[in-house]
Amino acid sequence: MTTYYSLHNSPTGELLMMSDGKALTDLHMTAGKYVPEAHKDWVRDDALPVFALARKELDAYFAGTLRAFTVPLAPKGTDFQKRVWTALTKIPFGETRTYGQQAAMIGQPAAVRAVGAANGKNPIGIIVPCHRVIGANGTLTGYAGGLHNKELLLKLEGIL
């Protein structure tokens, strides 16, 4: 299967978008953690329709006019990770949840640490809003894109 990619500038810095040709598989802040290293077999395609839609929606989100994304997603991960990431998409714009609340949401209230680890490996940042998950005491906890970007996104959503 071909992996397509494109880059996009945003208020959080340069974003690496990846796709299988139909859906977005990855969205990473290039200065963040867990960014895949470029591979010689990747194909840059800035005109791919899924990238055009992602750009349009990300720009609208950062402009404050979009609250819910519709770009098709196909993250790769374990079944547990996918359940955690799906639960993240259920957190409404402008709201936060704790890791404990997220664990309870997937029916595994004792799996707080595992939920935190899965959040940290979220391959589709911003659109799958792991930035909306905070510590039990209300503090901003780790974020692969950097805490300064987590704070920026939460301010954008009116949370901070």
Descriptive notes:
By secondary structure, this protein is an alpha/beta fold. It has two domains: 4-62, Double Stranded RNA Binding Domain; 79-156, Winged helix-like DNA-binding domain superfamily/Winged helix DNA-binding domain (Arc Repressor Mutant, subunit A). 31% of the residues lie in helices and 16% in strands. It has five helices and six strands; from the N terminus they run ββββααβααβα. The protein has helices spanning 49-62, 79-88, 99-105, 112-120, 147-156; strands spanning 4-10, 13-19, 24-29, 43-44, 97-98, 133-134. The protein has a four-stranded mixed beta sheet, with helices on one face. Strands 5-6 form a two-stranded parallel ribbon. Strand 2 and strand 3 form a beta hairpin. The protein is globular and about 45 Å long. The protein starts with a strand and ends with a helix.
Kindly state the percentage of residues in helix. 25-40%
Give the CATH topology of the largest domain: Arc Repressor Mutant, subunit A
CATH class of the largest domain: Mainly Alpha
Sequence of strands across the biggest β-sheet: 3-2-1-4
Mean pLDDT: 95
- How many H/I helical runs? 5
Range of strand content: 15-25%
- Tell me, briefly, the overall form: globular
**What is the string of SSEs from the N terminus onward?**
EEEEHHEHHEH
Count the beta strands. 6
Oligomer: single chain
What's the main sheet like? 4 strands, mixed
Look at the helices and sheets and give the structural class. alpha/beta
Number of domains: 2
CATH superfamily of the largest domain: Winged helix-like DNA-binding domain superfamily/Winged helix DNA-binding domain
